[in-house]
């Protein structure tokens, strides 16, 4: 039997009906759970209750409180609707009886229709990007190429990204990979463009996160991820993002609001 990919390993649940459990997401860790991880696992739990023919269409998640790596995560899935073309699921992720994430996810059976997306020339050409290492929050699972001037510990948009290793040819697992990856850039992008990013700038955390899945995602291929700040007020910043494949096709759209408490 072939070894599971790293993301498939993270989606290995103990299951009882529509209740799922991950036993200690990463043993020995003490820092706050990465939002992309818990969102990907929530989508995986939701997808496990959906007919094989329906694929992830979108997800909308709220990060209710910070999670930990040293405690089991429990996922309860409510089957909101099962229609001929669409299925809707509500997922509650908890640790120690306290909710850490709420998600609504929609799944759609592919069907023929119009095909269009806007032309979007790269804001950073692949050949002009430089390899980057030591990015926070599971950056070691991906190859990244960023602006040569980016010396931060984050992935600063625009950047190019791909999975370092092969991911199973499974639409749900690959959608979970995209969900995981999509949380690597929005928080720094939620700052106003006039504010330089520094490691000691202030406290930051993801508040909510949305993904729309447009086209099939091939994790081992290079993709460019472009995010921009859309608004900032009340210590909250909104970032909007687009993920394109190397040919320029729009693969997914992302939005996230982040909390930025910056001392004044």
UniProtKB/TrEMBL annotation:
Protein's UniProt name: Acyl-CoA thioesterase II
This protein's record includes keyword Hydrolase: yes
Organism: Mycolicibacterium alvei
Keyword tags: Hydrolase
Family listed: Belongs to the C/M/P thioester hydrolase family.
Sequence ranges assigned to domain Acyl-CoA thioesterase-like N-terminal HotDog in this UniProt record: 30-108
Alphabetical list of InterPro entries matching this protein: Acyl-CoA_hotdog (IPR042171), Acyl_CoA_thio (IPR003703), HotDog_dom_sf (IPR029069), TesB_ACOT8-like_N (IPR049449), TesB_C (IPR025652)
The keyword Cell cycle appears for this protein: no
Residue span(s) of domain Acyl-CoA thioesterase 2 C-terminal: 159-257
